[in-house]
Design goal:
The chain is mainly alpha-helical and 78 residues long. The chain has 2 helices and 2 strands. It has a two-stranded antiparallel ribbon. It is flat, with a radius of gyration of 18 Å. It comes from Meloidogyne incognita. One of its GO terms (biological process) is positive regulation of transcription by RNA polymerase II. This is C2H2-type domain-containing protein.
Amino acid sequence: DNKCHWRDCEREEPFQRLAHLKRHIVGHTGVKLYVCEYLNENGVRCDKRYTQSHKLTIHKQTHAGERIIYKCDYHACA
């Protein structure tokens, strides 16, 4: 039914998607499933953890020296 049944959760309406409910539940548990396994030149693992996969993807770019450049598609945006 895509509703949160977590004790003391104030959200009453169901989520439209199961994935949204799962993301919401992580807010209750604090579990960070997505782990950076990057090893530096000394063999030390980064081990940073994230609750969402896209945040790990963004983080991994720091190891590669890349930057995500966000560009507005609106034609009048500067």
